[in-house]
Amino acid sequence: MTTWTRLVGTGFLCGFALVATVRGADLTDHLKPGNPEVKSIGPIAFGPDGVLFLGDTLGAKVVAIDTRDRGPAASGPLKLEGANQKIAALLGTDTKEVMINDIAVNPASGRVYLAVARGRGPDAIPVLMRVDRSGQIEQVALDRVPCAKMALPNPPNSGSTRAESITDLAYADGRLIVAGLSNEEFSSRLMVMPFPFSNSAQGTGRVEIYHGAHGRFETKAPVRTFMTYKIGGRPHIVAAYTCTPLVKFPMSDLTPGAEIKGVTVAELGNRNKPLDMIAYTKGGKDYILLANSSRGVMKIDAAGIDTQESITKKIDDKAGLKYETVEAMKGVQHLDKLDDAHAVVLTQAEDGVMTLQSVDLP
Amino acid sequence: MRTGVAAFAALFIIGCRERIVVTSQQGPVERISGATVVAGEPTLRLDHGPKEKPRAVFLVDGLRAEDLEALAGADEQALRQMFVLRVAEGPEDLPNLLGHYEVKDGSIRFEPRFPLQPGLRYRATFDPTRLPVTKATTGPVITEFVAAPAPEAPRTRIDHVYPSRDVVPENQLKLYVHFSAPMSRGESYRHIQLVNDDTGRTIDLPFLEIAEELWADRQTRLTLLFDPARVKRGLASREEAGPILEEGKTYTLVIEKAWPDANGRALASDLRKTFRAGPPDNLPVDPNEWKIDPPRSTTKASLVIDFPEPLDHAMLGRAMRILGPDGFPVRGSITIDRDETRWGLTPESPWKAGEHALVIDTELEDLAGNSVGRPFEIDIFQKIDRTVRTESLIRTFVVE
Predict the structure, then answer these.
(1) Which of B173, B178, B226, B381 to mutate to test the interface with A (most CBs of A within 10 A)?
(2) Over the stretch B135-154, which tens digit does the pLDDT of each residue have?
(3) Which among A165, A256, A314 has the least Cβ separation from residue B210?
(4) Residue A361: Cβ within 10 Å count
(5) CB–CB contact A293 B212 (8 Å)
């Protein structure tokens, strides 16, 4: 049983301040019906109880909604060919006017949720879609949904041109972790938000990573994608940075103002942009699957991630945990874990046509 | 802006086996031309709603009263099967538009959930054999409609690229590209190249590619970050892939006009901006080196501050403010000129005599990302609170 201390943030239209302590509560209990008024939907991630977190860069906030999608968990393969064409058709627009910004699987139901922008201009309409195993696509209405919102720290002043682009987010153990990057001052941040959202200060630690050369520790490197991962029974963040150190640090270290030293557990090669990352177990062994822009999909042997010493020496290209490139996975744009034996990938062919499909975990 | 040509044209019609309906349209509400709506002869129509608040609705007119009465109590699924709306382009197996059906004012109505896409073709198909009362013997009525193209507008231009100078430090951190109108998101990096003029080669992946891209001001300003892994000294990427800019060499930023703006139209022209890389700048911004030229009191002359090096254009617009002798901010308009080496404030009201304070947010950066009192190469991670907590530095000056 979990004890949640509730400090729900001052909401906007949904999720108003409430302070209570509930034992064994459901994560959706504090969400209030309303319209989260998202201006964009970028990265998305599921928590338990069908709660979906949406990163809204244009709205300078993150949003939690109750999808009311609690299963039962589906099984069987999923294949949706021409995913972008079909979504465009449903939304009454041209395929080139549809962007699929992220995908996330609801672990409770096995449905795949897609963060979509209808349009590419400043008035693009954010749309949340979901796909079931039969390939049926539907829109998830956001106009009256149990929800809560949380503004990003340091929201831009009126008239300011500053914005914080959300590069990824993940939920674990009562906390939502958000990686962001400003379009003006150079700062790459990890923001930690207690969930249910709290109105109190959102702490973030100083996160140092070692970046494979010359004894330099870095805190400004932009986090591209990350996940929460239990290592030795303790929840950790495993984060992939540009060019491509893989870094772990315990979530317990992420307290306001704390200085955290990440452990660089692998250097996976330069000139690369990590896209999405999942963890899984196969044949009793632990692996991490990492989709990349130019180095394909990597299957990383996670054995030893608990004992891997930090790479603190200059390296030529690769070091630390070993990986192999999964040749069968080409053109992967987004990746998430579908169930214990499958991932779901959104791939794009050279002609631009996208396919959403389940694949066996390698 | 409406031209002589109808803004919305109902188009050509697709012949169906037994009936061809020819429609044309001269206004925002489609009218049947050369045909009279006759009860029992269904015709399809697109109503765009009032001009000030467009709201597209596809309608089936010309239905008998007894059919309408029977359909009024039918569920939406029956209407959905009878009257099908879809995008007319693309593969045949595409799903129908999302939207809402109802029977109202003598018509079957379908209102799409999303606005029509300018210039896109839509196909409406009505199957009269599914009418509940009338025993139709004709085939489906099919009409295609094209949504009005986006209004004519001047081609979008690239107004400026900051920094303005043609010499930048070799550890230049970012560029700002300003456009005259909103641009499209999603394929920016594909249309931007950086060419090493000495070799003629295009540099591979010079910029940090962020999925959402770093836009501001309704997508009229794009921030391009040079990949910091190739700017910072001592990082593997810089050592292996080489730094992006090297002192003494010349580079050209090329932005292709094929890059579509928010309305899908190409830019007015390509942009080529040539600049030379100078020595690296690893020193923090030091406001003590700034020259402040105070105006005379009782005038509305500009306060002018000169910097020994160019500073970040975007941050200059918000990172400095002046407090008057009473401690309140001096309101006015800011100018940034001389290649971002000069900042000016022209007050709304005449200057008051006395000591003024220049308040500088310490996050203000120079071209290489060095901020006030803090060089880029040293990383300091700060606690982030919900409230704005920007450290400030104050310099005072006297207005006489």
Answers:
(1) B381
(2) 877 889 999 999 988 888 99
(3) A165
(4) 19
(5) no
Sheet of strand A206-210: strand arrangement? A217-218, A206-210, A259-261
User: Cis peptide before B132, with omega less than 30 degrees from 0?
Assistant: no
Tell me: the pLDDT tens digits for B71-101?
A: 998 889 999 999 999 999 888 889 999 999 9
Q: Taking residues A274-282, what's their average pLDDT?
A: 92
Best of A137, A242, A253, A275 to disrupt the B interface (most B CBs within 10 Å) is: A242
Exposed e or buried b for every residue in B166-201, given b needs 16+ CB within 10 A? eebbbbbbbbbbbbbbbbbbbbbbebbebbbeeeee
DSSP-derived secondary structure letter, A243:
S
Q: Is the pTM of this model over 0.90?
A: no
Q: Is A58 left (phi over 0), alpha (psi -120 to 50) or beta?
A: alpha
Quote the tokens at residue B194: 């950086």
Q: How far apart are CA B335 and CA B358, in angstroms?
A: 15
- The C-alpha of A256 sits at a distance from chain B's nearest C-alpha, in angstroms, of 6
Identify residue A165 by its one-letter amino acid code. S
Task: Look at residue B238 and tell me whether its pLDDT is greater than 60.
Answer: no
**Is B240 within 8 Å of A317 when comparing Cβ atoms?**
yes
State how far the Cα of B226 lies from the Cα of B186, in Å rounded to an integer.
18
Q: How many CB pairs under 8 A join A and B?
A: 220
Distance between CA atoms of A144 and A233, rounded to whole angstroms?
A: 38
The one-letter code for the residue type at B363 is E
**Mutating which of B383, B387, B389, B390 best tests the A interface, going by the most A Cβ atoms within 10 A?**
B383
* Residue A86, H or E segment: helix A83-90
Residue A20: phi and psi, rounded to 5, are: -160, 160
Q: Which residues contact B10 (CB under 8 A, 6 or more apart)?
A: B23, B24, B25, B30, B45, B46, B143, B144, B145, B146
B77 close to A (CB below 8 A) = no
The stretch A126-137 carries a mean pLDDT of 97
Specify the pLDDT at position B366.
94
Q: B196 touching A, CB under 8 A?
A: no
Residue B62 structure tokens: 């010309």
A228-260 pLDDT per residue, tens: 999 988 889 898 877 667 888 888 877 766 666
DSSP assignment letter at A261: E
Question: Average pLDDT for residues A194-221, to the nearest whole number?
Answer: 56
**C-alpha closest to that of A329 among A292, A286, A301, A274:** A292
CA distance B126 to A4: 55
User: Tokens in use for A348?
Assistant: 């794009």
B133 to chain A nearest CA, in Å? 31
How far apart are the C-alpha atoms of B117 and B115, rounded to whole Å?
Answer: 6
Q: Answer whether residue B381 shows pLDDT above 70.
A: no
Q: What Å distances lie between residue A63 and A41, A66, A147, A169, A308, CA to CA?
A: 10, 10, 7, 11, 36
CA distance B119 to chain A (A): 10
**Residues pairing with A190 in the sheet:** A179
Complex-level ipTM: 0.87
Q: How many CA atoms lie within 13 A of B360 on its CB side?
A: 21
* SS3 category, A328: coil
DSSP A92: T
